[in-house]
Amino acid sequence: MEINWQVRFHNPVWWLQIFLAVASPVLVYYGLNFKDLTSWKSVFDLFLNALKNPYILGLIFINVFNTINDPTTKGLSDSLRALGYVNPN
């Protein structure tokens, strides 16, 4: 599995996708919206409870996998073109 992590880490869109891949299943499972999280304590408690729930962890794993995987290539690797990138294209 060859993935150009350096380019992905420098891409703000990829970070947004990872954030949403983690936050969405948690919010949906508990029936919340972002506006319901009005303090850092409530955010911390919510994600602490999510880490204790194997169902939510499974959903997060699947979402992160889908964010990392490039469906336009065979297997789990980036294309040869993408592996040659120095900056996000």
Top keywords for this entry?
mainly alpha; 62% helix; 89 residues; elongated
How would you sum up this structure in a few lines?
The chain is mainly α. The protein has 5 helices and no strands. The protein has helices at residues 5-9, 12-30, 40-51, 54-68, 80-83.
Structure notes:
The chain is an all-alpha fold and 89 residues long. The chain is 62% helix and 0% strand. It has helices at 5-9, 12-30, 40-51, 54-68, 80-83. Helix 2 (12-30) runs antiparallel to helix 4 (54-68). The radius of gyration is 16 Å and the shape is elongated. It starts with a helix and ends in a 6-residue tail after the last helix. 3% of the residues are buried. The mean pLDDT is 92.
Structural category = mainly alpha
Low-pLDDT segments, ≥5 res: none
| Alpha plus pi helix count | 5
Summarize the biggest pleated sheet: none
The helix content, as a percent range, equals: 55-70%
Shape: elongated
Kindly report how far apart the N and C termini lie. Answer: 21 Å
Overall number of strands: 0
Rg measurement, Å? 16 Å
The fraction of residues assigned to DSSP E strands is under 5%
